[in-house]
């Protein structure tokens, strides 16, 4: 087979391909000792797992082996405060972010608190900020409302790590604050007026720094349930929700804790749920009685939970769904959420198309794309983050996309590996950004609309000092070369040992050489192909690339880079290649 390095130029999408540099001796050793397929052995070594014990831990995890949560800074203070409040019936309010991580973390704590002391459940309330009315994060209005309603313990989930003044306000009003967050702490200073649970804060020796907020909530729950006769069963059940939040928030999946949580959640979800709301959500997502994968969490369940916050402003409806007392109520709410997701998809598609047109018309040479539009004109605040991700995917450049309302631009930023977007925002923030925060690859921010062009100039000037031309060429890594005849259901099922997939543990991509014998456009936006080698042909699909139809002809020899999956349709299973990219060989 032709070596990929011998192919001159970039791929049809302008990308560079590079083979994973794997120690073949170590790969064979792992394969032999673990009795696994050589492809899986290579994949494990590529992920840095060169010892048998490491590989075994990666493949098979246990919730019981997650690091001891009592070693997390301030966990003892949080435990004492919450248990005392639950015992005495002190009013507690849980405030969760409107995304999937915040929502699942909120529900995890809500269900745990009710189990710990059902008698004081009536004193536990919750609140999810409205994306459009409240904006992102903990704000003074939330504190004022809690104080007015007699709340004495306020717990934030996935927000609050930068809310220094809000926690100070809460303290002044006699409210004890507990902040559960996992975002980057700007200036390395956590709020002093709240009990902060965040592995990334200074002084925290807890070894796993990459838990999502819902994962930290699960660890808090484990501590609170210490001594409970059903602790293990409760934690296993809660993992069904926490797994969805973990995958959706794109935290690293090479972390032992995150893998253990998601693996436990996948096992639980695959066997169904006694929670009427979750069962309705599985059914409406087409996942009932299916073996659930991390893909299903990230692309079917997570988006539906997020859609409520994106399109309706708040995920309160999701909390109500998962609290539903009857199947009928659950189905009604699940159907409403499913409709919101369809609306989100339509708005997202329109917005991405508008941005692509702008880039083409303006022939922008910016290293960082910065665009904004009025919320009323379709630049919906709930989908700018997804739109930014699509632009990064398409052009390999960071993107800041804003929804403008009442003179304020509410933005979402997505970046590439070479540019830490939070550091970039911090560098250009002086005098223009009203609020910002997030991760190295994703962040949120806001500013007055008249400063939007200044932000564009500043962040591009900053990027000039960080990025090189090489950084802007998207490099795709492949982990092996296969012939169409190598691909079968057994191979694909074997690759499932690497699940769950996500950040830092992507689904492995392979290069397949073959001749294009059939191509057609489906649903007006995707390409379905059939690739022939020396044996049976292989079905392949390229999502959202119908625009390349005219560049591909039947009879062309192709080098395709893609991921293997099982196409399960009407009870029939067959191998399918999900195309990421391709080279034409003639």
Q: What is the percentage of strand-forming residues?
A: 15-25%
Largest sheet: 5 strands, parallel
The stretches of 5 or more residues where confidence is low (pLDDT under 50) are: 1-6
CATH topology of the largest domain: inorganic pyrophosphatase (n-terminal core)
Going by helix content, strand content and strand pairing, the class is alpha/beta
Give the total of domains. 3
Mean pLDDT, to the nearest integer, reads 92
The second-level CATH architecture of the largest domain is: Alpha-Beta Complex
Quick one: CATH class of the largest domain? Answer: Alpha Beta
What global shape is seen? globular
Nutshell version of this structure?
The protein has helices at about 25-35, 40-45, 50-60, 75-90, 100-115, 140-150, 165-170, 215-225, 230-250, 255-270, 275-285, 295-310, 315-320, 325-360, 385-395, 420-430, 450-465, 490-495; strands at about 15-20, 90-95, 125, 155, 175-180, 195, 370-375, 400-405, 410-415, 435-440, 440-450, 475-480, 480, 510-520, 525-530, 540, 555-570, 570-585.
Could you outline the blueprint of secondary structure elements for this entry?
Blueprint: E1 16-19, H1 24-34, H2 38-46, H3 52-59, H4 75-88, E2 92-96, H5 100-116, E3 124-127, H6 140-148, E4 153-157, H7 164-172, E5 176-180, E6 194-197, H8 213-224, H9 231-248, H10 256-270, H11 276-284, H12 294-311, H13 316-322, H14 327-362, E7 369-374, H15 384-395, E8 399-405, E9 408-414, H16 421-428, E10 433-438, E11 442-448, H17 452-466, E12 475-478, E13 481-482, H18 489-495, E14 510-522, E15 526-532, E16 538-542, E17 557-569, E18 572-584
Parallel strand pairs: 1-12, 2-3, 2-4, 4-5, 5-6, 7-8, 13-14, 16-18
Antiparallel strand pairs: 8-9, 9-11, 10-11, 14-15, 14-17, 15-16, 17-18
């Amino acid at each position: 087979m032709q070596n990929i390095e011998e192919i001159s130029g970039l791929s049809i999408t302008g990308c560079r391909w590079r083979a994973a540099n794997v120690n073949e001796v170590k790969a064979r050793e792992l394969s032999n000792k673990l009795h696994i397929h050589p492809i899986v052995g290579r994949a494990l070594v590529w992920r840095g797992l060169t010892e048998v014990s490491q590989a075994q831990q990666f493949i098979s995890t246990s919730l019981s082996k997650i690091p001891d949560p009592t070693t997390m800074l301030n966990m003892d203070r949080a435990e004492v405060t919450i248990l005392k409040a639950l015992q005495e019936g002190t009013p507690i309010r849980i405030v969760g972010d409107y995304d999937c991580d915040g929502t699942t973390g909120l529900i995890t704590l809500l269900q745990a608190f009710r189990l710990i002391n059902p008698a004081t459940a009536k004193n536990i309330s919750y609140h999810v900020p409205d994306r459009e009315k409240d904006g992102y994060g903990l704000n003074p209005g939330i504190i004022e409302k809690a104080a007015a309603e007699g709340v004495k313990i306020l717990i934030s989930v996935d927000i609050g790590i930068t809310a220094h003044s809000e926690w100070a306000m809460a303290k002044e009003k006699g409210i004890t604050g507990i902040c559960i967050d996992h975002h980057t702490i700007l200036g390395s200073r956590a709020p002093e007026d709240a009990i902060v649970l965040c592995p990334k804060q200074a002084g925290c020796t807890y070894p796993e720094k990459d838990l999502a907020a819902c994962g930290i909530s699960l660890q808090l729950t484990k501590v609170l349930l210490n001594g409970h006769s059903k602790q293990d069963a409760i934690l296993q059940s809660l993992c069904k929700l926490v797994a969805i939040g973990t995958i959706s928030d794109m935290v690293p999946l090479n972390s032992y804790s995150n893998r253990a949580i998601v693996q436990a959640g996948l096992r639980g979800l695959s066997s169904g749920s006694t929670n009427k709301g979750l069962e309705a959500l599985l059914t409406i997502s087409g996942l009932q009685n299916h073996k659930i994968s991390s893909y299903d969490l990230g692309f079917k369940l997570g988006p539906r939970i997020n859609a409520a916050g994106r399109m309706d402003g708040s995920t309160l409806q999701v909390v109500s769904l998962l609290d539903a007392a009857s199947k009928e109520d659950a189905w009604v709410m699940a159907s409403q959420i499913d409709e919101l997701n369809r609306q989100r998809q339509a708005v997202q598609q329109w917005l991405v198309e508008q941005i692509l047109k702008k880039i083409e018309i303006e022939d922008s040479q910016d290293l960082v794309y910065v665009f904004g539009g009025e919320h009323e004109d379709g630049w919906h605040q709930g989908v700018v983050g997804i739109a930014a991700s699509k632009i990064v995917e398409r052009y390999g450049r960071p993107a800041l996309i804003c929804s403008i309302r009442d003179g304020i631009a509410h933005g979402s930023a997505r970046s590439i590996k070479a540019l830490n977007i939070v550091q970039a925002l911090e560098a250009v923030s002086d005098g223009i950004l009203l609020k910002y925060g997030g991760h190295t690859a994703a962040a949120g921010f806001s500013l007055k609309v008249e400063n939007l062009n200044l932000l564009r100039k500043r962040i591009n000037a900053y990027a000039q000092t960080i990025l090189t031309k090489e950084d802007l060429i998207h490099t795709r890594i492949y982990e092996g070369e296969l012939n169409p005849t190598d691909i079968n259901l057994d191979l694909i099922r074997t690759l499932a040992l690497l699940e769950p997939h996500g950040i830092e543990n992507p689904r492995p991509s392979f290069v397949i050489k073959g001749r294009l014998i059939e191509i057609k456009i489906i649903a007006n936006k995707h390409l379905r192909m059939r690739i022939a080698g020396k044996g049976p042909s292989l079905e392949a699909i390229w999502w959202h690339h119908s625009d390349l139809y005219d560049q591909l002809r039947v009879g062309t020899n192709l080098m395709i880079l893609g991921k293997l999956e099982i196409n399960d349709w009407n009870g029939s299973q067959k191998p399918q290649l999900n195309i990421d990219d391709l080279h034409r060989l003639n």
